[in-house]
């Protein structure tokens, strides 16, 4: 079927006049008449009949006009859908993140983004560093948000550091070092509760040992999850070196206590936005990154 002919027919039917339809479409009235006749010939059914000095729809013409109205509405919806996607008002955005940004930063960023982009389908996956980068590199994610060191980043990605999170030594509020200022050597006499080998917090801890040339502490308990680590310290055993993002509420509520270490520089945990290198970012990705930057 000639879709252009159907559209011309619809405009004649809704305006009730070949002349008015021609004016609306900015073409000549004879051109409209000629194309309507061609359309009638194509479908093999008469659409208009003469009445006085004008024309009216046949019964089939009335039925087709109703169908054409649905078609025109659908066409407009499709145009709006394409335009919304082009202008980043709709579509899918896949974000993969490591634990700290996924739990303590992204919820706020996602809420701000959705408030301005309600029709965007935002999908967020929490995983480890290795899997986050693999998903990004293999086009299973559009953005990776990652907390960790430069050495862990593959050469295939571009990153921008957006947030610095200070790492704290924390103990139970009943611990003898709670709220105290001590030396690093004294701190490392305590048993530590840490994440598994390869975790960024554990790497930061051992890097601190190398920087200040002290013996590393004994890792007395090891967990795969950060919440289990925190709960064990709250329960009264050992110490932890951990992101302030993860424990700030516990410290402020008195469930954990900080230990201040003399003569060392604050240790920072950097959080970065990562995308594929040498690839033009689509508007959804650009808008989400801008939302993050506005919120910082």
From TrEMBL:
One Pfam short name: HTH_1
InterPro entries: LysR_HTH_N (IPR000847), LysR_subst-bd (IPR005119), WH-like_DNA-bd_sf (IPR036388), WH_DNA-bd_sf (IPR036390)
Domain HTH lysR-type, residue spans: 1-58
Superkingdom of the organism of origin: Bacteria
Keywords: DNA-binding, Transcription, Transcription regulation
Similarity section: Belongs to the LysR transcriptional regulatory family.
Protein name per Swiss-Prot or TrEMBL: LysR family transcriptional regulator
Taxonomic path: Bacteria, Bacillati, Bacillota, Bacilli, Bacillales
């Amino acid at each position: 079927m000639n879709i252009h002919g159907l559209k011309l027919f619809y405009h004649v039917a809704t305006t009730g006049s070949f002349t008015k339809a021609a004016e609306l479409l900015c073409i000549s009235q004879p051109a409209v008449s000629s194309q309507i006749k061609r359309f009638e010939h194509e479908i093999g059914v008469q659409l208009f009949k003469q009445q006085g000095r004008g024309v009216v729809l046949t019964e089939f013409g009335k039925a087709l006009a109703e169908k054409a109205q649905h078609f025109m509405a659908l066409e407009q919806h499709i145009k709006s859908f394409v335009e919304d996607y082009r202008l980043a008002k709709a579509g899918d955005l896949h974000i993969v993140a490591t634990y700290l940004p996924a739990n303590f930063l992204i919820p706020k960023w996602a809420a701000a983004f959705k408030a301005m982009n309600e029709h965007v389908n935002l999908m967020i996956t929490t995983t480890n560093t290795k899997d986050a980068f693999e998903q990004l590199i293999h086009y299973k994610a559009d953005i990776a948000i990652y907390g960790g060191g430069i050495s862990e980043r593959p050469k295939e990605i571009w990153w921008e550091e957006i947030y610095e999170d200070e790492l704290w030594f924390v103990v139970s509020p009943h611990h003898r070092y709670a709220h105290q200022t001590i030396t690093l050597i004294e701190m490392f006499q305590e048993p530590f509760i840490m994440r598994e080998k390869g975790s960024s917090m554990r790497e930061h801890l051992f890097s601190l040992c190398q920087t200040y040339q002290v013996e590393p502490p004994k890792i007395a308990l090891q967990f795969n999850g950060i919440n289990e680590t925190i709960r064990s310290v709250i329960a009264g055993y050992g110490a932890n070196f951990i992101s302030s993002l993860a424990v700030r509420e516990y410290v402020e509520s008195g469930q954990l206590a900080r230990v201040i270490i003399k003569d060392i520089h604050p240790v920072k945990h950097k959080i970065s936005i990562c995308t594929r290198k040498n690839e033009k970012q689509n508007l959804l990705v650009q808008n989400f990154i801008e939302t993050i930057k506005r919120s910082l």
